[in-house]
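Hi Y.,

Following your request, here is the sequence exactly as I used it, all 489 residues.
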Amino acid sequence: MRTRSLSVLALLAFTACSSPSSKGSSPVVDDEEATGAPSDPSEPLQSPKYRVFEGGKVVEKSNVDARNGGFGDGSGARGRAADAPGAPPPLATAAAAAGEMDMERGVAPRQPAMGGGQAATRVMSGEWDDNANYREFMKYLATTPTTRAFDVKNRRFIRVSDVDGMPVPNCTVTVHGDGRDLDLTTTSGGRALFFPHAEGFEGGTLVAKASCAGKGDVSFNASDDDGVVELKLDGQRTVADERVVDIVFVLDTTGSMSEEIEALSSTIQRVAEMLEKEKVTGRFGLVEYKDRTDPFITRTTPMTKDVKRFLERVKEVRASGGGDMPEDVNEGVRTAVQDLAWSSTSVAKLMFVIGDAPPHLDYQDATPYSTSTKDASHRGIVIHTVAASGMDDVGQSVFRQMAQYTGGSAMFVLRGGAGPASVGGGDPKSSCGGTQENFKSGELHRLITNKVYGALTAVDGRDKRIAGLGKDEDAKPCEERVRPVAWSR
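Below is the corresponding structure, written out as tokens. Let me know if you'd prefer a different format.
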């Protein structure tokens, strides 16, 4: 955490080739809106759980005196200048061309504070998919060796389909070879990302097998740079009539995160509205994380179907604490992956990590983010990361790696009330239905809602193409690109 002041970001305007320009402000959810959310008594809201640093170790507690750092009281510091977010290389390149980017740091220069104490609850955002632009990501990793946690060469998409060709979500796939086995779980689209070197395989010929909709197995070579492994089962899949999706927010709640916390309520409300219209049940969970010097490291709101009560809990969260730049991201991610009750029958399991600071890489007794990321991948949990403006190079690298390894996207948000004319950056010389071809933009709730909706549509196999397979999407003409799904009702 670093303190910051509200500011207007002077960045290039752009329109994504797949998304229209954002219009209007994202509303702040008031009490009436929150009470209109569905309340499901089958999985009620439980009391929060805490992990604190005490006596030189991390311990669990049922209650913590979290005044000025928790529910109901305390206020978030608003003293940090709004640096530009941790965006991928094309963002830095374009902004530098416009004379607005500090290339050494990879962020925009500090801007003057807004006058009059103007509050900014509107958080604008953009997105970069490192699997859709896999080759560009490999080049990026080559420049960040100090924070490179995974060897993601020889990527494989293991795609599981039933006898009718429909994707099979939540299917356990066992990869065998080199004298060892590895279990992976397919995501909503029936796919499991497999990186042989990161998982300890040497390559060569491997076997993937599954028995979740009938049985099937397939041999494949893991030595090629990139490819798809088609695992066809001889039975028909079974998908429950009531579709359930698990959605967890892992949120940095230190003092510089006020705007993101304020925006989260409206984001959850929008997601809940979409799920209700799509006749899908949402299970929501929250992990707040801070640092070891704060009253608590993590505070966990267990999974619940009671959206009304969950929203009330989220609205009570306050930003406070921190003090240095790194935070205990490792413990936040570990808690979300390992301690929350993820459902084995949900059609999609999605996790959104939102923060503005890198993890403490100096905590020798911590479970590293790389271990938790692998665990998430093995369990079919897709991690989408949201880097708030001001994130440094280490944080950018960590957040992008977590997203890429699990098949998620690396999003970024711009603080200070940035409007439609200042929502991000990119190459102004390119055109793909607008002024920018590499990034998608929108308000934060729009991107997150689209991610949830995209996971749901994947269950029905509406689009089986894989973005970035064989060629990066940003290297293709616009008409040939695999466009992400957007919810527009």
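Residues 2-36, 68-120, 417-431, 433-438 have pLDDT under 50 and may be disordered.

Thanks again,
Q.
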